[in-house]
Amino acid sequence: MNSLYERYCTSMQAWDDCAAVYEKQIVSGHPDITAYENFEEDLLDRLLRYLAKSQKRPIRLMDIGCGSGRLHIRYGAKTAALKNIDESSPFIRFKQANPDLAYDEVIAGRLKEVWGIDFSKSMLDLARKKIKETGLDSHKSIPLKLEQGSAFELKPEPGKTLPVAVCLVNSISVMQGPEGAQELFKSMRNAVEDAGGIAMISCYQKEYIQSYGLGQYESTLDVSGQPWWMVPDTYASNSYIHKSRTYKLAYDPCPDLIVDIFDRQGNLIEKGFKLTRDPKRTANVVETGHIRTHTDYTSHWYSYDLIDAWTKTYWGDGANHIPTKKLDALRAEPAQLAVLDCGGNLDDILQRWDVL
Q1: What is the pTM of this model?
Q2: Each residue of 238-266: pLDDT tens digit?
Q3: Most CB atoms within 10 A, among 13, 127, 252, 315?
Q4: DSSP 243-301
């Protein structure tokens, strides 16, 4: 299975299969991943507020690999005031339960749409369900649009709005290997360049796969299957679900993991089953950055130098590549950020970050 299209189809099926569990274990689960997501959200809030004050054009936020609609819900809520809303509306309860998503007058004044694309129908269905549960589907908000399709085929944006295209939380890692990652760089530039827009890719660094990556995949193995480097493979097939008893956090050196094994009907098969890292396989993962499981799930963590090279090759020497620990050492230590700013929209803020 060598072609990009064939890998694309296989990955799409894998994500359709794991959508619901991914939402529980990753999006609202593992503390290290949640911290990374919170960093991204705070960063994007600040950038949108900056652009809202410095730009005259309306802003179109484009979430590339939008998954279950994290940014749709965030900015749908932040641009929706509570005026004239029935007290029985689920939106009232949602806002009360999420004070960090309070109405933001500055962002609301300039952000006019959140658009997202993802190849997984199941993830998009989950996004629509979440939007409905929050009450955003019936409350007057900015348009929250979702589209099933390929991140490699983005069309050029018109210049009437300022496009801000983002690919966050390591989504580039599951876009069909290095060939797909490079197609993403090209596609995002194609989308924003003519309109003088902005493209951003946030992802992990391969250099941190030992300290962060192994533990993340091991302790969320009910999402994507038993990691290839963990043995024995007694229950490694799709017929079983492994549930870790705890999350492995960053820099945990323990090679062992205790899991409970269930069949697909939810019946407990074995309690307290011990998995451990195979030294040779683990070394291969650390060296290559290639994550594999005993299902069809695959992911790549790319080195800082490789993302830097792709940034220069596909976005030009004027693009910026930033180790995010420079911006937030506690929450974003293992990550990196590539920024293409076609219209010089972020010159001032990039100077503040000391990256120009």
Answers
A1: 0.92
A2: 899 999 999 999 999 999 999 999 998 99
A3: 127
A4: EESSPPPTT----EEEEEEEETTS-EEEEEEEEEE-HHHHHHHHHH-EEEBSSS-EEEP
CB pairs under 8 A, 24+ apart, for 343-350? 343/162, 343/195, 343/196, 343/197, 343/198, 345/51, 345/54, 345/55, 345/162, 345/196, 345/197, 345/198, 346/47, 346/50, 346/51, 346/198, 348/50, 348/54, 349/46, 349/47, 349/50, 350/320
Measured between its terminal Cα atoms, the distance across the chain in Å is 42
Pairwise CA distance, residues 127 & 72, whole Å: 8
| DSSP β-ladder status, 335-341 and 198-204 | antiparallel
Evaluate whether 30 touches 220 at the Cβ level (below 8 Å): yes
Give 153: exposed, middle or buried? Use CB within 10 Å, 0-12, 13-18, 19+. Answer: exposed
Q: What tens digit of pLDDT does each residue of 61-77 get?
A: 999 999 889 999 999 99
Bridge partner list, 162: 59
SS3 340: strand
- CA 54 to chain centroid, in Å, comes to 27
- Least Cα distance to 339 among 304, 299, 312 occurs for 312
Distance in angstroms (rounded) separating the CA atoms of residues 120 and 65: 9
Domain definitions of the chain by residue range:
4-205+302-352, 209-298
Q: Which residue(s) pair with 332 in the sheet?
A: none
Burial class (CB in 10 A: 0-12, 13-18, 19+), 201: buried
Angle between helices 177-192 and 304-315 (to 10 degrees): 40
Count the alpha carbons within 13 Å of 53 in the hemisphere toward its beta carbon: 11
CB atoms within 10 A of CB 316: 12
Backbone angles phi, psi at 7, to 5 degrees: -65, -35
